[in-house]
Amino acid sequence: MQPIALPIVEGKYNLKNYEEAYKTFDWSEVEKEFTWYETGKVNMAYEAIDKHCETHRKNKVALYYSDANRDEQYTFLDLKRLSNKFANILKELGIVKGDRVFIFMPRSPELYTAALGTIKTGAILGPLFEAFMREAVKDRLADSEAVAIVTTPELLARIPISELPTLKHIILVGDADENDQGHISYQDEMSRASDQFEIEWVDREDGLVLHYTSGSTGKPKGVLHVHNAMIQQYQTAKWVLDLQEEDVYWCTADPGWVTGTAAGMFGPWLNGASNVVRGGRFSPDDWYQTIEKFNVTIWYSAPTAFRMLMGAGDESVKKYNLSTLRHVLSVGEPLNPEVVHWGLRVFEKRIHDTWWMTETGAQTICNYPCMEIKPGSMGKPVPGIIAAIVDDEGNELPPNRMGNLAIKQGWPSMMRQIWNSPEKYDEYFQTKGWYVSGDSAFMDEDGYFWFQGRIDDVIMTAGERVGPFEIESKLIEHPAIAEAGVIGKPDAARGEIIKAFIALRNGYDATDDLLEEIRNFVKTGLAAHAAPREIEVKEKLPKTRSGKIMRRVLKAWELGLATGDLSTLED
Ligand code: PRX
Questions:
Q1: Per residue in 427-458, pLDDT tens?
Q2: Pick from 443, 478, 495: which residue ends a domain?
Q3: Which of 236, 508, 550, 568 has the least CB density, counted as fewest CB within 10 Å?
Q4: Which range marks the domain in which residue 541 is found?
Q5: What CATH number corresponds to the domain at position 547?
Q6: ipTM of the complex
Q7: Residues in domain AMP-dependent synthetase/ligase (predicted)?
Q8: Percent of the chain with pLDDT over 70
Q9: pTM, 2 dp
Q10: 392 and 338 within one domain
Q11: What is the distance between the alpha carbons of residues 381 and 383, in angstroms, rounded to a whole number?
Protein backbone atom coordinates (compact mmCIF):
# COMPACT_ATOMS: atom_id res chain seq x y z
CA MET A 1 0.00 0.00 0.00
CA GLN A 2 1.35 3.41 -0.98
CA PRO A 3 0.80 6.11 1.63
CA ILE A 4 -0.49 9.45 0.41
CA ALA A 5 2.30 11.81 -0.62
CA LEU A 6 2.50 15.19 1.10
CA PRO A 7 2.43 17.97 -1.48
CA ILE A 8 5.15 20.54 -1.93
CA VAL A 9 4.67 23.71 0.09
CA GLU A 10 5.29 26.72 -2.12
CA GLY A 11 8.32 28.78 -1.15
CA LYS A 12 11.60 30.26 -2.35
CA TYR A 13 13.89 27.30 -1.86
CA ASN A 14 17.55 27.03 -2.81
CA LEU A 15 16.83 23.82 -4.68
CA LYS A 16 13.99 24.64 -7.01
CA ASN A 17 13.57 21.56 -9.11
CA TYR A 18 14.97 18.30 -7.81
CA GLU A 19 14.62 16.25 -10.99
CA GLU A 20 16.23 18.94 -13.09
CA ALA A 21 19.15 19.34 -10.66
CA TYR A 22 19.60 15.60 -10.47
CA LYS A 23 20.03 15.43 -14.24
CA THR A 24 22.38 18.37 -14.67
CA PHE A 25 24.32 18.97 -11.47
CA ASP A 26 28.02 18.27 -11.24
CA TRP A 27 30.13 18.65 -8.08
CA SER A 28 32.71 20.65 -10.01
CA GLU A 29 30.20 23.52 -9.94
CA VAL A 30 30.82 23.88 -6.20
CA GLU A 31 34.60 23.81 -6.35
CA LYS A 32 34.88 27.50 -7.21
CA GLU A 33 33.52 28.40 -3.79
CA PHE A 34 36.73 27.53 -1.97
CA THR A 35 40.29 28.85 -1.81
CA TRP A 36 41.86 25.82 -3.41
CA TYR A 37 40.32 26.96 -6.66
CA GLU A 38 42.81 29.84 -6.59
CA THR A 39 45.64 28.76 -4.32
CA GLY A 40 45.53 24.97 -4.44
CA LYS A 41 45.26 24.91 -0.63
CA VAL A 42 42.34 25.15 1.75
CA ASN A 43 41.27 25.01 5.40
CA MET A 44 37.77 24.21 6.65
CA ALA A 45 37.98 26.71 9.51
CA TYR A 46 38.83 29.50 7.10
CA GLU A 47 35.93 28.62 4.80
CA ALA A 48 33.49 28.24 7.69
CA ILE A 49 34.44 31.30 9.75
CA ASP A 50 37.24 33.64 8.65
CA LYS A 51 36.02 34.00 5.08
CA HIS A 52 32.77 35.58 6.26
CA CYS A 53 34.74 38.23 8.17
CA GLU A 54 35.75 39.67 4.80
CA THR A 55 32.07 40.19 3.91
CA HIS A 56 28.85 41.76 5.21
CA ARG A 57 28.60 38.78 7.56
CA LYS A 58 31.52 39.89 9.74
CA ASN A 59 29.23 41.08 12.55
CA LYS A 60 26.49 38.58 11.92
CA VAL A 61 25.83 36.15 14.79
CA ALA A 62 27.49 32.83 13.98
CA LEU A 63 26.68 31.13 17.29
CA TYR A 64 23.82 31.60 19.71
CA TYR A 65 24.58 29.56 22.80
CA SER A 66 22.38 28.94 25.81
CA ASP A 67 22.07 26.49 28.68
CA ALA A 68 20.66 26.70 32.20
CA ASN A 69 23.37 29.19 33.25
CA ARG A 70 24.63 30.88 30.12
CA ASP A 71 23.16 32.92 27.34
CA GLU A 72 25.72 34.20 24.86
CA GLN A 73 26.20 35.10 21.26
CA TYR A 74 29.27 35.21 19.06
CA THR A 75 29.72 36.86 15.68
CA PHE A 76 31.82 35.39 12.90
CA LEU A 77 34.52 37.87 13.87
CA ASP A 78 34.36 36.75 17.51
CA LEU A 79 34.77 33.12 16.48
CA LYS A 80 37.62 34.01 14.15
CA ARG A 81 39.53 35.71 16.96
CA LEU A 82 38.76 33.11 19.61
CA SER A 83 39.72 30.20 17.37
CA ASN A 84 42.92 32.05 16.43
CA LYS A 85 43.77 32.26 20.10
CA PHE A 86 43.14 28.59 20.60
CA ALA A 87 45.18 27.72 17.52
CA ASN A 88 48.06 29.70 19.01
CA ILE A 89 47.85 27.70 22.24
CA LEU A 90 48.13 24.46 20.29
CA LYS A 91 50.93 25.79 18.14
CA GLU A 92 52.96 26.75 21.20
CA LEU A 93 52.49 23.22 22.48
CA GLY A 94 54.06 21.99 19.28
CA ILE A 95 50.89 20.60 17.67
CA VAL A 96 51.38 20.23 13.93
CA LYS A 97 49.39 19.24 10.89
CA GLY A 98 48.04 15.69 11.11
CA ASP A 99 48.28 15.40 14.92
CA ARG A 100 45.13 14.10 16.57
CA VAL A 101 43.58 16.56 19.03
CA PHE A 102 40.52 15.36 20.92
CA ILE A 103 37.73 17.35 22.47
CA PHE A 104 35.85 15.63 25.26
CA MET A 105 33.40 17.95 26.93
CA PRO A 106 29.76 19.04 27.01
CA ARG A 107 28.51 21.44 24.35
CA SER A 108 29.66 25.01 25.06
CA PRO A 109 31.15 27.93 23.13
CA GLU A 110 34.57 26.68 24.26
CA LEU A 111 33.97 23.36 22.50
CA TYR A 112 33.30 25.11 19.19
CA THR A 113 36.21 27.50 19.69
CA ALA A 114 38.59 24.63 20.38
CA ALA A 115 37.29 22.64 17.42
CA LEU A 116 37.81 25.50 14.98
CA GLY A 117 41.20 26.39 16.47
CA THR A 118 42.32 22.78 16.16
CA ILE A 119 41.38 22.73 12.48
CA LYS A 120 43.26 25.99 11.88
CA THR A 121 46.50 24.29 12.95
CA GLY A 122 45.95 21.50 10.40
CA ALA A 123 45.49 18.98 13.21
CA ILE A 124 42.78 16.32 12.98
CA LEU A 125 39.83 16.93 15.28
CA GLY A 126 38.62 13.99 17.38
CA PRO A 127 35.29 14.87 19.00
CA LEU A 128 34.23 12.59 21.84
CA PHE A 129 30.73 12.50 23.26
CA GLU A 130 30.75 13.57 26.91
CA ALA A 131 28.89 10.45 28.09
CA PHE A 132 31.79 8.11 27.32
CA MET A 133 33.41 6.44 30.29
CA ARG A 134 36.97 5.42 30.93
CA GLU A 135 37.28 2.38 28.71
CA ALA A 136 35.50 3.92 25.75
CA VAL A 137 37.69 7.02 26.05
CA LYS A 138 40.83 4.96 26.31
CA ASP A 139 40.07 2.82 23.24
CA ARG A 140 39.57 5.88 21.08
CA LEU A 141 42.56 7.88 22.30
CA ALA A 142 44.85 4.87 22.10
CA ASP A 143 43.77 3.80 18.61
CA SER A 144 44.23 7.30 17.21
CA GLU A 145 47.41 8.01 19.21
CA ALA A 146 46.00 11.33 20.28
CA VAL A 147 48.59 13.89 21.44
CA ALA A 148 46.28 16.40 23.10
CA ILE A 149 42.82 16.54 24.63
CA VAL A 150 40.58 19.41 25.62
CA THR A 151 38.32 18.47 28.50
CA THR A 152 36.82 19.66 31.78
CA PRO A 153 37.99 18.97 35.36
CA GLU A 154 34.80 16.90 35.84
CA LEU A 155 35.66 14.54 32.98
CA LEU A 156 39.38 14.33 33.65
CA ALA A 157 39.09 11.20 35.80
CA ARG A 158 37.79 9.28 32.77
CA ILE A 159 41.03 9.75 30.88
CA PRO A 160 43.55 7.06 31.89
CA ILE A 161 46.55 9.30 31.23
CA SER A 162 49.18 6.85 32.46
CA GLU A 163 47.96 4.23 29.96
CA LEU A 164 48.16 6.61 27.02
CA PRO A 165 51.84 7.17 26.22
CA THR A 166 51.23 9.48 23.24
CA LEU A 167 48.90 11.83 25.11
CA LYS A 168 51.12 14.77 26.08
CA HIS A 169 48.81 17.72 26.63
CA ILE A 170 45.64 18.10 28.65
CA ILE A 171 43.83 21.39 28.32
CA LEU A 172 41.23 21.99 31.01
CA VAL A 173 38.21 24.19 30.45
CA GLY A 174 36.76 25.30 33.79
CA ASP A 175 37.97 25.81 37.30
CA ALA A 176 40.75 23.40 38.06
CA ASP A 177 41.61 22.41 41.62
CA GLU A 178 45.00 21.41 43.05
CA ASN A 179 44.68 17.83 41.72
CA ASP A 180 44.67 19.22 38.23
CA GLN A 181 48.06 20.90 38.56
CA GLY A 182 50.34 20.21 35.68
CA HIS A 183 47.57 20.51 33.12
CA ILE A 184 47.01 23.52 30.92
CA SER A 185 44.35 26.03 31.85
CA TYR A 186 42.21 27.00 28.87
CA GLN A 187 41.15 30.27 30.48
CA ASP A 188 44.69 31.35 31.42
CA GLU A 189 46.12 30.52 28.03
CA MET A 190 43.24 32.10 26.12
CA SER A 191 43.61 35.35 28.05
CA ARG A 192 47.22 35.72 27.00
CA ALA A 193 47.19 34.21 23.49
CA SER A 194 47.28 36.44 20.42
CA ASP A 195 44.13 36.65 18.34
CA GLN A 196 46.17 36.68 15.14
CA PHE A 197 47.05 33.35 13.60
CA GLU A 198 48.51 32.27 10.28
CA ILE A 199 46.25 29.40 9.20
CA GLU A 200 47.89 26.14 8.22
CA TRP A 201 46.81 25.74 4.60
CA VAL A 202 46.30 22.10 3.78
CA ASP A 203 45.50 19.92 0.81
CA ARG A 204 41.94 18.91 0.06
CA GLU A 205 42.79 15.33 0.96
CA ASP A 206 44.36 16.14 4.35
CA GLY A 207 42.62 14.87 7.49
CA LEU A 208 39.91 17.01 9.08
CA VAL A 209 37.91 15.01 11.59
CA LEU A 210 38.02 11.53 13.06
CA HIS A 211 34.68 10.13 14.24
CA TYR A 212 34.66 6.83 16.06
CA THR A 213 31.66 4.70 15.27
CA SER A 214 30.51 1.16 15.86
CA GLY A 215 30.22 -1.85 13.61
CA SER A 216 28.95 -5.29 14.48
CA THR A 217 32.40 -6.72 15.14
CA GLY A 218 35.52 -5.43 16.80
CA LYS A 219 36.28 -2.23 18.62
CA PRO A 220 34.87 1.09 17.44
CA LYS A 221 36.48 2.26 14.23
CA GLY A 222 37.90 5.69 13.47
CA VAL A 223 36.22 7.10 10.36
CA LEU A 224 38.48 9.76 8.85
CA HIS A 225 37.06 12.65 6.84
CA VAL A 226 39.19 15.13 4.92
CA HIS A 227 38.81 18.83 4.12
CA ASN A 228 37.37 17.93 0.71
CA ALA A 229 34.14 16.94 2.54
CA MET A 230 33.29 20.64 2.54
CA ILE A 231 32.06 20.38 -1.04
CA GLN A 232 29.18 18.14 -0.08
CA GLN A 233 28.63 19.61 3.38
CA TYR A 234 28.30 23.07 1.85
CA GLN A 235 25.99 21.97 -0.94
CA THR A 236 23.69 19.78 1.16
CA ALA A 237 23.37 22.54 3.77
CA LYS A 238 22.19 24.71 0.89
CA TRP A 239 19.82 22.23 -0.72
CA VAL A 240 18.68 19.91 2.03
CA LEU A 241 18.79 22.22 5.05
CA ASP A 242 17.81 25.04 2.67
CA LEU A 243 19.88 27.58 4.64
CA GLN A 244 19.39 31.14 3.48
CA GLU A 245 20.81 34.44 4.71
CA GLU A 246 18.08 35.28 7.24
CA ASP A 247 17.71 31.82 8.69
CA VAL A 248 18.35 30.84 12.28
CA TYR A 249 19.30 27.19 12.30
CA TRP A 250 19.24 24.70 15.14
CA CYS A 251 20.76 21.25 14.82
CA THR A 252 20.19 19.39 18.07
CA ALA A 253 23.04 16.88 17.59
CA ASP A 254 26.19 16.88 19.70
CA PRO A 255 29.50 17.30 17.82
CA GLY A 256 30.51 13.91 19.25
CA TRP A 257 28.49 12.46 16.36
CA VAL A 258 28.82 13.20 12.66
CA THR A 259 25.54 15.09 12.51
CA GLY A 260 26.91 17.53 15.07
CA THR A 261 29.99 18.35 13.01
CA ALA A 262 28.92 17.99 9.36
CA ALA A 263 25.43 19.43 9.84
CA GLY A 264 25.93 21.20 13.17
CA MET A 265 29.10 23.19 12.42
CA PHE A 266 30.61 22.83 8.97
CA GLY A 267 27.56 22.84 6.67
CA PRO A 268 25.79 25.80 8.28
CA TRP A 269 28.90 27.91 8.76
CA LEU A 270 30.18 27.25 5.26
CA ASN A 271 26.90 28.89 4.23
CA GLY A 272 27.35 31.78 6.68
CA ALA A 273 24.30 30.81 8.72
CA SER A 274 23.45 31.71 12.32
CA ASN A 275 23.74 28.55 14.35
CA VAL A 276 21.95 27.82 17.62
CA VAL A 277 23.51 25.50 20.20
CA ARG A 278 21.60 24.48 23.28
CA GLY A 279 23.65 22.92 26.08
CA GLY A 280 22.36 20.55 28.73
CA ARG A 281 20.02 17.63 28.53
CA PHE A 282 16.81 17.12 26.60
CA SER A 283 13.50 18.36 27.95
CA PRO A 284 10.42 19.16 25.84
CA ASP A 285 9.85 22.59 27.39
CA ASP A 286 13.46 23.50 26.99
CA TRP A 287 13.43 22.57 23.34
CA TYR A 288 10.28 24.48 22.48
CA GLN A 289 11.64 27.44 24.43
CA THR A 290 14.82 27.33 22.39
CA ILE A 291 12.88 27.60 19.14
CA GLU A 292 10.79 30.44 20.49
CA LYS A 293 13.66 32.32 22.11
CA PHE A 294 15.96 32.34 19.08
CA ASN A 295 13.23 32.49 16.46
CA VAL A 296 14.56 29.30 14.94
CA THR A 297 13.51 28.91 11.30
CA ILE A 298 15.23 25.62 10.42
CA TRP A 299 15.32 22.74 12.85
CA TYR A 300 17.22 19.47 12.41
CA SER A 301 16.62 16.71 14.94
CA ALA A 302 16.05 12.98 15.30
CA PRO A 303 13.03 10.63 15.42
CA THR A 304 13.68 9.74 19.06
CA ALA A 305 13.49 13.39 20.05
CA PHE A 306 10.35 13.94 17.97
CA ARG A 307 8.76 10.89 19.57
CA MET A 308 9.58 12.21 23.04
CA LEU A 309 8.09 15.58 22.15
CA MET A 310 5.06 13.81 20.78
CA GLY A 311 4.80 11.87 24.05
CA ALA A 312 4.85 15.13 26.01
CA GLY A 313 1.49 15.97 24.43
CA ASP A 314 0.00 18.78 22.38
CA GLU A 315 -0.54 20.96 25.43
CA SER A 316 3.18 21.51 25.82
CA VAL A 317 3.55 22.64 22.18
CA LYS A 318 0.69 25.07 22.49
CA LYS A 319 2.44 27.01 25.26
CA TYR A 320 5.04 28.29 22.82
CA ASN A 321 5.10 30.39 19.72
CA LEU A 322 6.84 28.26 17.12
CA SER A 323 5.59 30.23 14.14
CA THR A 324 9.10 31.15 12.94
CA LEU A 325 9.77 27.52 11.96
CA ARG A 326 9.78 27.08 8.22
CA HIS A 327 11.70 23.86 7.64
CA VAL A 328 12.00 20.77 9.86
CA LEU A 329 14.27 17.79 9.25
CA SER A 330 15.14 14.46 10.81
CA VAL A 331 18.04 11.99 10.73
CA GLY A 332 19.45 8.95 12.44
CA GLU A 333 16.73 6.32 12.45
CA PRO A 334 13.53 5.53 10.61
CA LEU A 335 11.10 8.43 10.82
CA ASN A 336 7.71 6.86 11.46
CA PRO A 337 4.85 8.17 9.28
CA GLU A 338 2.98 8.71 12.55
CA VAL A 339 5.59 11.27 13.59
CA VAL A 340 5.35 13.01 10.22
CA HIS A 341 1.61 13.32 10.66
CA TRP A 342 2.08 14.63 14.19
CA GLY A 343 4.49 17.25 12.82
CA LEU A 344 1.92 18.33 10.27
CA ARG A 345 -0.65 18.74 12.99
CA VAL A 346 1.35 20.53 15.69
CA PHE A 347 3.94 22.54 13.71
CA GLU A 348 1.98 22.61 10.47
CA LYS A 349 5.21 21.57 8.82
CA ARG A 350 6.34 18.51 6.93
CA ILE A 351 9.25 16.77 8.67
CA HIS A 352 11.85 15.96 6.04
CA ASP A 353 13.65 12.68 6.60
CA THR A 354 17.32 12.47 5.60
CA TRP A 355 19.49 9.36 5.42
CA TRP A 356 23.25 9.25 5.82
CA MET A 357 25.97 7.74 7.97
CA THR A 358 29.19 8.61 9.75
CA GLU A 359 30.95 7.07 6.76
CA THR A 360 29.14 9.19 4.16
CA GLY A 361 30.26 12.43 5.82
CA ALA A 362 27.23 14.37 4.64
CA GLN A 363 23.61 13.84 3.67
CA THR A 364 23.08 11.41 0.78
CA ILE A 365 19.39 10.44 0.49
CA CYS A 366 16.89 13.10 1.46
CA ASN A 367 13.54 14.77 1.15
CA TYR A 368 13.69 18.32 -0.19
CA PRO A 369 11.28 21.18 0.36
CA CYS A 370 10.65 21.33 -3.40
CA MET A 371 9.66 17.66 -3.57
CA GLU A 372 6.62 15.63 -2.56
CA ILE A 373 7.18 13.60 0.59
CA LYS A 374 6.00 10.05 1.06
CA PRO A 375 5.82 9.63 4.85
CA GLY A 376 8.02 6.70 5.85
CA SER A 377 10.42 7.16 2.93
CA MET A 378 13.94 8.57 3.28
CA GLY A 379 13.59 10.40 -0.03
CA LYS A 380 15.84 10.48 -3.06
CA PRO A 381 19.61 10.75 -3.60
CA VAL A 382 21.19 14.19 -3.36
CA PRO A 383 21.99 15.51 -6.87
CA GLY A 384 25.51 14.32 -7.62
CA ILE A 385 25.02 11.10 -5.62
CA ILE A 386 24.24 7.77 -7.23
CA ALA A 387 22.37 5.41 -4.92
CA ALA A 388 20.92 2.01 -5.67
CA ILE A 389 19.66 -1.21 -4.17
CA VAL A 390 22.12 -3.96 -5.03
CA ASP A 391 22.31 -7.68 -4.40
CA ASP A 392 25.30 -9.23 -2.66
CA GLU A 393 27.24 -9.30 -5.93
CA GLY A 394 26.67 -5.60 -6.60
CA ASN A 395 24.01 -6.03 -9.29
CA GLU A 396 21.37 -3.34 -9.26
CA LEU A 397 17.92 -4.58 -8.34
CA PRO A 398 14.71 -3.35 -9.96
CA PRO A 399 12.21 -1.19 -8.02
CA ASN A 400 10.41 -2.68 -5.04
CA ARG A 401 13.01 -5.40 -4.45
CA MET A 402 14.69 -5.39 -1.06
CA GLY A 403 18.48 -5.45 -0.99
CA ASN A 404 21.61 -3.59 0.11
CA LEU A 405 21.42 0.16 0.13
CA ALA A 406 24.55 1.23 -1.74
CA ILE A 407 26.21 4.44 -2.93
CA LYS A 408 28.48 4.71 -5.94
CA GLN A 409 32.04 5.12 -4.65
CA GLY A 410 33.64 8.57 -4.96
CA TRP A 411 31.20 11.13 -3.55
CA PRO A 412 32.98 14.24 -2.19
CA SER A 413 32.48 13.68 1.54
CA MET A 414 33.20 9.95 1.45
CA MET A 415 35.35 8.74 4.38
CA ARG A 416 38.96 8.32 3.31
CA GLN A 417 40.26 5.90 5.93
CA ILE A 418 39.38 3.67 8.81
CA TRP A 419 42.14 4.70 11.16
CA ASN A 420 44.82 2.03 11.44
CA SER A 421 42.73 -0.43 9.49
CA PRO A 422 42.94 -0.45 5.70
CA GLU A 423 41.32 -3.92 5.70
CA LYS A 424 38.20 -2.61 7.42
CA TYR A 425 38.07 0.27 4.97
CA ASP A 426 38.27 -2.08 2.00
CA GLU A 427 35.44 -4.21 3.36
CA TYR A 428 33.02 -1.40 2.54
CA PHE A 429 33.98 -1.24 -1.11
CA GLN A 430 34.12 -4.80 -2.32
CA THR A 431 31.12 -4.86 -4.62
CA LYS A 432 31.69 -3.45 -8.09
CA GLY A 433 32.47 0.12 -7.09
CA TRP A 434 29.59 0.36 -4.62
CA TYR A 435 29.90 1.46 -1.02
CA VAL A 436 27.64 -1.02 0.76
CA SER A 437 26.03 0.70 3.73
CA GLY A 438 24.94 -2.21 5.92
CA ASP A 439 21.31 -1.05 5.65
CA SER A 440 18.67 -2.91 3.72
CA ALA A 441 16.11 -0.93 1.78
CA PHE A 442 14.11 -0.84 -1.43
CA MET A 443 13.44 1.84 -4.00
CA ASP A 444 9.90 2.33 -5.27
CA GLU A 445 8.91 2.98 -8.87
CA ASP A 446 9.10 6.76 -8.29
CA GLY A 447 12.71 6.54 -7.08
CA TYR A 448 11.98 7.00 -3.36
CA PHE A 449 14.09 4.90 -0.97
CA TRP A 450 12.52 3.02 1.93
CA PHE A 451 14.57 1.84 4.92
CA GLN A 452 14.01 -1.77 6.01
CA GLY A 453 16.62 -2.47 8.68
CA ARG A 454 20.28 -3.07 9.40
CA ILE A 455 21.79 -6.10 7.72
CA ASP A 456 24.43 -6.42 10.40
CA ASP A 457 23.90 -6.42 14.15
CA VAL A 458 24.53 -2.73 14.74
CA ILE A 459 22.05 -1.29 17.23
CA MET A 460 20.45 2.12 16.79
CA THR A 461 19.13 3.20 20.17
CA ALA A 462 17.66 6.65 20.68
CA GLY A 463 19.49 7.74 17.55
CA GLU A 464 22.85 6.50 18.76
CA ARG A 465 24.79 3.82 16.98
CA VAL A 466 26.08 1.13 19.31
CA GLY A 467 28.14 -1.93 18.47
CA PRO A 468 27.08 -5.12 20.25
CA PHE A 469 30.67 -6.34 20.39
CA GLU A 470 31.85 -3.47 22.57
CA ILE A 471 29.08 -4.16 25.08
CA GLU A 472 29.60 -7.93 25.01
CA SER A 473 33.31 -7.45 25.65
CA LYS A 474 32.54 -5.27 28.63
CA LEU A 475 29.94 -7.68 29.99
CA ILE A 476 32.27 -10.65 30.02
CA GLU A 477 34.76 -8.67 32.07
CA HIS A 478 32.24 -8.90 34.89
CA PRO A 479 33.19 -11.78 37.24
CA ALA A 480 29.67 -13.23 37.25
CA ILE A 481 29.34 -13.49 33.47
CA ALA A 482 30.44 -16.50 31.45
CA GLU A 483 28.93 -15.55 28.08
CA ALA A 484 27.12 -12.55 26.70
CA GLY A 485 25.26 -11.72 23.51
CA VAL A 486 23.71 -8.33 22.80
CA ILE A 487 20.93 -7.37 20.39
CA GLY A 488 18.67 -4.44 19.62
CA LYS A 489 15.08 -5.04 20.71
CA PRO A 490 12.40 -2.99 18.91
CA ASP A 491 11.04 -0.20 21.08
CA ALA A 492 8.33 2.30 20.29
CA ALA A 493 10.08 5.32 21.79
CA ARG A 494 13.77 4.61 21.25
CA GLY A 495 13.70 2.71 17.98
CA GLU A 496 15.62 -0.08 19.64
CA ILE A 497 16.75 -0.75 23.18
CA ILE A 498 19.81 -2.75 24.12
CA LYS A 499 19.04 -6.22 25.38
CA ALA A 500 21.72 -8.53 26.74
CA PHE A 501 21.48 -12.28 27.05
CA ILE A 502 23.96 -13.65 29.55
CA ALA A 503 24.99 -16.98 31.00
CA LEU A 504 26.30 -16.83 34.56
CA ARG A 505 29.36 -18.53 35.97
CA ASN A 506 28.85 -21.27 38.52
CA GLY A 507 28.12 -19.98 41.96
CA TYR A 508 26.21 -16.87 40.84
CA ASP A 509 22.44 -16.42 41.10
CA ALA A 510 20.41 -14.17 38.87
CA THR A 511 19.23 -11.80 41.58
CA ASP A 512 17.86 -8.34 40.83
CA ASP A 513 20.82 -6.87 42.66
CA LEU A 514 23.27 -8.71 40.47
CA LEU A 515 21.53 -7.63 37.27
CA GLU A 516 21.48 -4.04 38.45
CA GLU A 517 25.17 -4.28 39.28
CA ILE A 518 25.88 -5.61 35.79
CA ARG A 519 23.94 -2.78 34.19
CA ASN A 520 25.97 -0.29 36.23
CA PHE A 521 29.17 -2.04 35.31
CA VAL A 522 28.53 -1.25 31.63
CA LYS A 523 27.22 2.21 32.40
CA THR A 524 30.28 3.26 34.33
CA GLY A 525 32.76 1.37 32.18
CA LEU A 526 31.53 2.31 28.71
CA ALA A 527 28.71 4.82 28.52
CA ALA A 528 25.20 5.22 29.88
CA HIS A 529 23.68 4.81 26.43
CA ALA A 530 25.50 1.47 26.02
CA ALA A 531 24.08 -0.12 29.19
CA PRO A 532 21.53 -2.87 28.50
CA ARG A 533 18.01 -1.85 29.49
CA GLU A 534 17.06 -5.50 29.62
CA ILE A 535 19.14 -8.47 30.74
CA GLU A 536 17.93 -12.03 30.37
CA VAL A 537 19.77 -14.87 32.00
CA LYS A 538 20.08 -18.16 30.09
CA GLU A 539 21.73 -21.47 30.91
CA LYS A 540 23.77 -21.25 27.73
CA LEU A 541 23.89 -19.03 24.67
CA PRO A 542 23.64 -20.26 21.06
CA LYS A 543 27.09 -20.41 19.49
CA THR A 544 28.60 -21.41 16.19
CA ARG A 545 31.07 -24.28 16.15
CA SER A 546 33.82 -21.70 16.15
CA GLY A 547 32.41 -20.26 19.36
CA LYS A 548 30.82 -17.09 18.01
CA ILE A 549 27.59 -16.09 19.74
CA MET A 550 24.74 -16.19 17.22
CA ARG A 551 22.97 -12.91 17.69
CA ARG A 552 20.58 -13.89 14.91
CA VAL A 553 19.21 -16.64 17.12
CA LEU A 554 18.98 -14.36 20.15
CA LYS A 555 16.98 -11.94 18.05
CA ALA A 556 14.67 -14.69 16.85
CA TRP A 557 14.11 -15.78 20.46
CA GLU A 558 13.32 -12.24 21.39
CA LEU A 559 10.87 -11.68 18.56
CA GLY A 560 9.33 -15.13 18.81
CA LEU A 561 10.40 -15.96 15.27
CA ALA A 562 11.67 -19.14 13.73
CA THR A 563 15.40 -19.45 14.31
CA GLY A 564 16.16 -20.40 10.71
CA ASP A 565 19.10 -22.52 9.69
CA LEU A 566 20.87 -23.76 12.80
CA SER A 567 23.25 -26.13 11.06
CA THR A 568 26.25 -24.13 12.20
CA LEU A 569 25.13 -24.19 15.83
CA GLU A 570 27.52 -25.71 18.34
CA ASP A 571 24.99 -28.19 19.74
O1 PRX B 1 20.95 2.41 9.92
C2 PRX B 1 21.05 3.71 9.40
C3 PRX B 1 20.63 4.72 10.45
O4 PRX B 1 21.81 5.16 11.07
C5 PRX B 1 22.94 4.47 10.53
C6 PRX B 1 24.14 5.39 10.56
O7 PRX B 1 24.42 5.75 11.87
P8 PRX B 1 25.51 6.87 12.18
O9 PRX B 1 26.75 6.54 11.46
O10 PRX B 1 25.57 7.00 13.65
O11 PRX B 1 24.96 8.19 11.53
C12 PRX B 1 23.71 8.70 11.92
C13 PRX B 1 23.44 10.10 11.40
C14 PRX B 1 24.10 10.58 10.17
C15 PRX B 1 22.50 4.09 9.15
O16 PRX B 1 23.28 3.03 8.64
N17 PRX B 1 19.97 5.88 9.81
C18 PRX B 1 20.47 7.10 9.59
N19 PRX B 1 19.53 7.90 9.02
C20 PRX B 1 18.43 7.14 8.88
C21 PRX B 1 18.71 5.85 9.38
N22 PRX B 1 17.80 4.86 9.35
C23 PRX B 1 16.59 5.13 8.82
N24 PRX B 1 16.25 6.35 8.33
C25 PRX B 1 17.11 7.38 8.34
N26 PRX B 1 16.78 8.57 7.87
A1: 999 999 999 999 999 999 999 999 998 888 88
A2: 443
A3: 568
A4: 458-559
A5: 3.30.300.30
A6: 0.99
A7: 51-418
A8: 97
A9: 0.92
A10: yes
A11: 6
